[in-house]
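dumping this here before i forget
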Amino acid sequence: MRKIGIILLGLLAVGILAIGVIIAVPSLRQTAMFQIDKLRVQAQYAISPPQEAVFVPESELATVVQATMQGYAPTSTPTPTATPTNVPPGPTLPPTPTATPIPSSVTLKGVRYIDQHGLWNYCAPSTLAMGLTYWGWQGERTDVGPVVKPFDKDKNVMPYELADYVNTQTQFRAIVRAGGDLDLLKRLVAEGFVVVIEKGIFLKDFNGKLGWVGHYAVVNGYDDAKEEFMTQDAYYSADYPVRYETLLSQWRSFNFTYLVIYPLQDEQSLMRTLGNSADEAAGYSIAAQTAATEAVSLDGLQQFFAYFNRGTSLAGLQDYSGAAAAYDQAFQLMAALPEADRPWRMMWYQTGPYFAYYYSGRYMDVINLATNTIDTAAEPYLEESFIWRARARIILGDNQGAIEDVRKSLEYHPGFGPGVELAQQLGIQY
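structure:
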């Protein structure tokens, strides 16, 4: 495999010379740059296959070092689902669960299909744009993209960042919750709400190999007779059907997280539909229990996701020691999976382990996990991983390393809130 990588590096050098001539032609420049990136990624992944690199947590807690001893004290404690800025007040009335029967089939019309193709990593902007069009929004994916991913090649946009866009850039509102299930999805659709879900799917990468990646989709219908959800999928197509069982399996890899967009006047209706799940902490509690049950009933890759979800839910409830233990088990299971099945991109999309290890005093685990995540990405555009490594490095006295990480984070995501905050505290230019 590594010999193939060396050959690819040689081809890359030749290709760059040839493509360099093409780049001079403006109309061909974007295609040429894409081909250069493709060759470079193929070479790096062939030399150092990312699925071979696994993170192994330390067996014992690291010594807890007081932040103030290093001259650093965070001004606030972040949470795994960081609260969007400028969010309007929540509902004034408590949610009331409803048991009203729903139709056996519903399809919501009005979603304008928008694909993600032709632009780099545009799944999130395209999907959110589709969800907004259901409510009459007239924008495009290119209105969303520059706000939620100002660095073009940012590998992922978090659900809270999508909600932040809705709450600050449109007249609509959005909430993000964990712990959904198929019945809740159907009930939301039946009540007139399209739902954005985050899930994991297997796609072929540049090397032609199937690999696990995160993906968003809009759910706008269901049919019990067919046991299918109707989705608007920016990668595949409009009106893309997904079997109930398939969606459940894919959705599990993101702790059954969902985002709902709604007009302010429909807030009480949404909260009644959500019932107990209207409360964020209740959603995490539901998700934690689901994960605990699935951790002992599933096996293989799905069991890994169950333990990972358990960690994410406990971190959301600020039980960081419990979360760290669940993540330890998840990473052990991941290391035992066949290489082809390992979801090695997991930390591109979910940062719960950083919270758990950091707030459990396991700073070296934060650093090692972040380093593993960054090093296995051919293009390490992962601002969250750099920020968490910086935080841990500060605690352990490596201020210079932290400064480099903060600058990288802000290079890959200009204006990234945690990066700006840390830069100000460190007194560095950004």
